[in-house]
C-alpha cells in the first residue's frame, strides 16, 4: 500500500509554516531559517550536506524518516521558487544541482513547463492539477513506494482537507511569527481521522505525528 | 515581587482558546469541554469538585499551580457569563455559589455593577479598565501576592501584548477547532521576552511554560 506522507514540516506556535514576504532572498519570508534550526542541528542534516557531526537524538530520529520508502514528492510552487519563478525559463529550483529529493518530484503550478532532470535522481515535473489528480500522477511515478508531500502549508492543508494524507509529521517551534501562511486554517475536526501523538524534544520543539485511523 | 501568572490556559492545535458561538449553554462555544478534559482527569480537579480519585502525574502537577500564591484574579467578561449577562441584574457568574477563585476577582466589563461577595472568599468586582490599570487595582487587592489572569484568550493576548505577564502556562490540546477566539494573534516575536519550555504529557496534551527573562 503506497502511503501519502509529510515529514519535518515545521510551524510556529501560532501555526505559520512560512513567514510573510517570500522572495528569492527569503524562501521562508520574515521567518528566515528559524523554523528549521532544529533540523539543521541533526546528523541527518549534517550527512545530507556532506558534513560530519550533528545530534543523534529524538530530532534526528524523526528527521531521517524523510527519505526511506519514498518514491516521489509533490511540492507546492512556493517550495520550488520565489513568486514569479515561472517567468524565468532558466530557474531550476531553490535546491541546487543535486536536490535532496532523489525521486520524481512534481511541482504544482499554474504555469507548467518541460521537465528538468537534475543530479542524484531528482527530476522535476510541472503539473497544474487538483490534489487528487496530482497524487494519482505521483503515485504512478512512485512505482509502489510512498509519496511525500513537501509543502508549503497551502498544499498540505489542501491535501489534508481532501482526506489524502496517511501520515503527517509536524514540528512545532516555540516562536510566534505573527504573520505568513497558516497550516491549520479550515481543517476543523480533521484530527479525528488520525491518531495524534505529541512528543516534546530537549531542543525545545514538539513533534506531532498524525497517523490515519480510517481507511 | 508580585507576579502576573496564567495557569491551565488551554488552546487547540490551531490556537483557539474558546470555540465559536459562546452562549449560556455553551461557555466555550462549539468547543464544548474538550479543551479541558485533560484537567478534569486530574486529582486537582477531583479535589476541587469534592471527589476522590484522579491522575497524579504531569497534568496534575501543572494543574495545581493554579491556586498557591495567588491573591487576586482578573478575568474577561466572557469568563463571567455569556454575551449579554450585564443585562441580567441577578447574574452571579458561571461558577456557582462557591467559585474556585477564593480571592478578590476583577471582571473586565464595559458595564460595571456593584461588587458581589460569594462563598469561599471570592468577591467579584467589576471594572472597565485598561490591562495596566486593571492590574494596578488587582495588585493592590492581592496584598503582595501574585495576580492570576483567568482568560479568555482576548484578555490574555492583551496583557501579553502590553508586556504585563511574568509566567504563562498554556496547554495545547491535539484538536483542530477551526473557529473561535485565537490566543496568539498579533503577538509576533513576543516569545522572545520569555524562556519557553514544552513538555508533552502521556495524556496527549503539551504543556508550554513561558517564564519572563526580561525585567
UniProtKB/TrEMBL annotation, chains A, B:
Domain of life: Bacteria
UniProt GO molecular function: 5-amino-6-(5-phosphoribosylamino)uracil reductase activity
Domain Bacterial bifunctional deaminase-reductase C-terminal: 9-191
GO process terms (BP): riboflavin biosynthetic process
InterPro entries the UniProt entry points to: DHFR-like_dom_sf, RibDG_C, Riboflavin_Biosynth_HTPR
Protein name: Dihydrofolate reductase
Organism of this sequence: Streptomyces coryli
